[in-house]
Amino acid sequence: MEVMPKQYQPQDLFEIVADTVISIKTKDGSGSGVIFNKNGIAVTNRHVVDTNTKALVGLRNGDKFIGKVIRSYSDIDLAFVKFDLTKSSLLRSSLIFSGEDFSPCCQRKLKVGEPVFAIGHPMGLDYTLTQGIISSIERTIEAAKFIQIDVSINPGNSGGALYTAYGELAGINTMGYVNSEHLNFAIPIDEVVKRYSTWLEEEAKGFTRYCAVCGFSSIDDKYCENCGASLKRDSSQEDDFLSKSDLAEDVKMSMKSDALATCKACGTSVSSSLKYCSTCGSTL
Q: Which UniProt keyword terms apply here (predicted)?
C-alpha cells in the first residue's frame, strides 16, 4: 500500500510553498515562475519570456534580481531563467528550502480527481491561490503531454506553480482554452525535470549561448546552430526596460553584480562575460 505524505489544508499549504513562486517581468509583459533549485534556476513558460534574454525576477520577500533566460522549449511552452538566489535572504529564511536542493517535486503518479492548487499572479494580483482538481493526468496537445485541470488560470498565472494537497510541485501552469471554463493545462513536473537534465548535459558540453529565436543553446558565439539566427542581438530595449522600471534601484544593484565592459566601437555598456557587443557585434 502506498504511504502518502501529510495532506495540508489550503491555508497551510500556501504558507509552506508560496515562497517558491516568483514574478517575471520583461519589456513585453509579465507572468509567474517557480524557483526550481537553490542554484537560482527558475521555471516559467516560454510565452512569458518570449524572445527576451533578460527578465526582472521578483521574490515573495520583495527581493528583485535580473534573470537571464538560459534555455526554452516551444513544444511544451517551457523556459528556464537563472538569477543569483544566493544573495536573497529568502534562501535562509524560508522553510521550503531548508535542507533541500530542489523544490519538492512530485515523484508519484497523480490521480484523476485529486485536489490541486495554483499559485501565481493573475491579472497582476500577487500571490493568488486557486483550487481545483485534476481532470486528466495525460492530455496530448500537438504531440506534447499536459495535465488537464479545472483550476482557474488567468493571464499572469502562466508559469506559476501547480501544487498537490501534499505540498508536491506537480506541474507548471501554462494555458487554457479561450471561451471555455475550467479547461486548463499544466506541464507535468517530470517533463520539467527531464528538460532541465537535458540543459545540464548541454551546458557540460559547452552549449551555453542562448538563442532567443528558437530557444536552443549553441557553442558558436555568432550564430545559432539550430535555426541559424544571429546571436549578436541588440539588447538595448531590454536594458532600457530594466533600468526604467519601478524597481530601477534594485536593477542597478543587480547590474553592478554583473561586471560591465564598454564597446570601443559604439560605446555601449555590455556584460563583461560577452565576447561580442550586443549592439554592433564588434569584438570586445
A: Hydrolase, Protease
